[in-house]
Amino acid sequence: MKMKNEVTYSRRLLKYLMVGLLVLLGLVCLYYGTLLSSGLPSADESFDDGVDPVTGRYVLKKDFDELFDDEEHNPEVLKSIPVCDLRYSELIPCLDRNLIYQTKLKLNLSLMEHYERHCPHQDRRYNCLIPPPIGYKIPIRWPASRDQVWKANIPHTHLAKEKSDQNWMIVDGDKIKFPGGGTHFHDGADKYIMAIAGMLKFPGERLSNGGHIRNVLDVGCGVASFGAYLLPLNIIAMSLAPNDVHENQIQFALERGIPATLGVLGTKRLQYPSRSFELVHCSRCRIDWLQRDGILLLELDRLLRPGGYFVYSSPEAYSHDAENRKIWSSMYDLLRRMCWRVVVRRDQTVIWAKPLSNSCYMKRTPETLPLLCSSHDDPDATWNVIMKACITPYSASMYPF
Ligand SMILES: C[S@@+](CC[C@H](N)C(=O)[O-])C[C@H]1O[C@@H](n2cnc3c(N)ncnc32)[C@H](O)[C@@H]1O
């Protein structure tokens, strides 16, 4: 009996000892945790004077504090942002066609000025959040989204009918499906991309060419299937098109998860610095490249890296009728004066390359058009910069003649 009591007593003692040890350990952790954390900045202190990683500008902490003071004391600063009326579920603020009609802006339609950005005056801004359409669903995730999106998220089926023979998209129940076709590549963008790589004799018919082609601009992209099939090749394509008769094309591209933007080759420079892309693509993009002394081709020239390619699949490159022959020879002549060379021309596609250095420009007779841009022209300035019909030469320090 005595033995049993002693065993129970020892067990209890051990239990109290264990609990005591745990409490002690907890207190030690708490003490050191407080000591260490006092060395770390608190949420309020974490912002200091320094360079803003987004804008690259130097920002003082003081300015940042003032911003919040302003929010507190200035009654005009909104405390919360209301949701817009459902009518505005597809409003794109600076690309709002209604605003152009209402404010009677005089824009040159033939230059596509109406598809460029025109931001409303302060008192015409909505200051509300764009609501999703009725029935909106969480988007299908990449990579499945390359081939299908929820119809409820972009309730527009007009392109499926209009481009039914070109395999752009198909309505299938509550989904819209993308077989990968386009105006120029009915059988799928993947085969077309391999064919381009084959034309350029890239190993394994891979357009990335071992990492030499990484950034592509697809001008007049439709629903961006060309860009979609470049992603697995480690090529990022920026797909570009305006909100024109092919309504909602960019909306589809974005819903699919493909990098795309609303834009147009019109009167202003595209918003990329010079030498941003190794390859520019246009398949049946229906752009008149000869207009205004080749100003739009000269914009592509600014955007291409030294030796960059322009892949052009359009009737002017292959049709034998008189009109297309005439356009082809004028384009060929213009691009020759711009020092571009034809790398290969096969089937319905021609591929040009821009020069690697300034040497060809220097060999031209001085009055040859297009002239070189003035040395005061900053080729990397892009915000609201009107295009000029001149060649952007390489900087002499980086690319000696
Ligand atoms: C016939 S579709 C071809 C689409 C796609 N490239 C294909 O092969 O399926 C013509 C495309 O060019 C675009 N486009 C027309 N003029 C343009 C311009 N000036 N700048 C940019 N895109 C333009 C249209 O919006 C449309 O996306």
UniProtKB/TrEMBL annotation:
It holds the Pfam family Methyltransf_29. It comes from the Eukaryota. Keywords: Glycoprotein, Membrane, Methyltransferase, Signal-anchor, Transferase, Transmembrane, Transmembrane helix. Its EC number is 2.1.1.-. The chain crosses the membrane at residues 12-33. It is found in: Endomembrane system; Membrane. InterPro entries: Put_SAM_MeTrfase (IPR004159), SAM-dependent_MTases_sf (IPR029063). It is a single-pass membrane protein; Single-pass type II membrane protein. SUPFAM superfamilies: S-adenosyl-L-methionine-dependent methyltransferases (SSF53335). PANTHER family: METHYLTRANSFERASE PMT9-RELATED, SAM-DEPENDENT METHYLTRANSFERASE. Belongs to the methyltransferase superfamily. This is Methyltransferase.
